[in-house]
Design a protein that fits this description.
The protein is an all-alpha fold. The chain has helices at residues 59-89, 96-116, 123-144.
């Protein structure tokens, strides 16, 4: 075989080293990305991204949570459209739009927390029900103006 004088680069695999978790993490979040507790006496995290070895959530549970969250999202879109029409029409107080936005963001935060805690038994449902409260206040505020 003829050589051209060009060598193929050597490819070596370098092991990936996981960096240690930061000391400051939000309450209830896991420190270890693999989901293993650091010590035997440590409680399990409330909110965490699923690890590779976690069992998949049930299809009915995921579907029910997704449908509920989509209704919350459609309600939020309706409030946003109503708020925009009210703002364009004028006559709304200065605090109207920021309050609508903050209540909507609180509702979204509860929904995100529900999906991050999907492996818990009741916490996701409590969070989804909690997401409906600021959305209901949003709807009442949007209807009032």
């Amino acid at each position: 075989m003829a050589t051209t004088g060009v060598e193929e680069p050597r490819r070596t695999r370098v092991p990936v080293q996981e960096s240690p978790a930061p000391d400051v993490v939000p309450f209830g979040w896991e420190r270890d990305p693999a989901g293993r507790p650091e010590t035997a006496g440590e409680e399990e995290a409330f909110f965490r991204f699923p690890a590779a070895d976690d069992p998949a959530p049930g299809a009915r549970r995921l579907l029910a949570m997704s449908v509920y969250a989509s209704f919350l999202g459609l309600g939020g879109v309706g409030v946003g459209i109503r708020g925009m029409v009210s703002q364009i029409g004028g006559g709304v107080p200065d605090w109207y739009v920021p309050v609508l936005a903050i209540l909507g963001m609180v509702s979204v935060a509860f929904s995100v927390g529900a999906f991050l805690s999907i492996h818990r038994r009741m916490l996701p449902w409590m969070l989804l029900l909690g997401a409906a409260v600021p959305l209901a206040a949003d709807v009442m505020l949007a209807v009032a103006y």
